[in-house]
Amino acid sequence: MRIVIAEDDPLLREGLALLLRAEALDVVATTADPDSFLQAVDIHRPDTAIVDVRMPPTHTDEGIRAAVEARRRQPGLAVLVLSAYVEQAFATDLLAHGSARLGYMLKERVGRVQEFLSALHRVADGGTAIDPEVVAQLLTRTRPDNRLERLSPRERDVLALMAEGLGNAAIAERLFVTDGAVHKHIRNIFAKLDLAPTDRTDRRVAAVLHYLESGGQHKA
């Protein structure tokens, strides 16, 4: 796995690089600002990028914008975004174009090495890794939610593959059904999870986040 790190805190930046290299991962570049990060992506063509949300010069949303731009320049680039605290608007912006090969974690999780590495590998393998605190705020659920139990076994299959980042055609191929059948299943999933077309969060992303919040339960 070839990795570029974009983090303006030198201690965290070098600490991440040391940790990943100790795991035999190939850190091809470490950068401290959005411009040098995008240059490193263009030069090294990494498989995965680890990006801080807030970076110079204004320390607002430069990291998010750089991550979106990097994925535009290199489709398929896996990105794990790190944030000091939950920033709901930024998470929603990043997820707006799909959740495949994408992660959003709080920096405090980095100290939990196995949890951090697991998230990194999941994102690199094409999945999604969203911090539970981010999930909670995106879904704004305060009571136990058993809506997944409303789904049929086939609908759970479809949702599980959505969580892996597969599109409709790939899901149809995996399940040996038609594109039309997948579209119908997804429409039913949205209805059973109470995801109305007017929700601020993209319904496909919200469905995946709900699945992840539940722990990826997949009961027949």
Describe the structure.
- The structure is a single chain.
- The protein has 220 residues and is α/β, with parallel strands linked by helices.
- The protein folds into two domains: 2-139, 3-Layer(aba) Sandwich (Rossmann fold), CATH 3.40.50; 147-213, Winged helix-like DNA-binding domain superfamily/Winged helix DNA-binding domain (Arc Repressor Mutant, subunit A, Orthogonal Bundle).
- Helices cover 49% and strands 14% of the residues.
- It has ten helices and six strands; from the N terminus they run E-H-E-H-E-H-E-H-E-H-E-H-H-H-H-H.
- The protein has a six-stranded parallel beta sheet with strand order 2-1-3-4-5-6, with helices on both faces.
- Helix 5 links the parallel strand 5 and strand 6.
- Helix 8 packs across helix 9.
- The longest helix is centred in the C-terminal third of the chain and has 14 residues, at 179-192.
- It is elongated and about 50 Å long.
- The two termini are 35 Å apart.
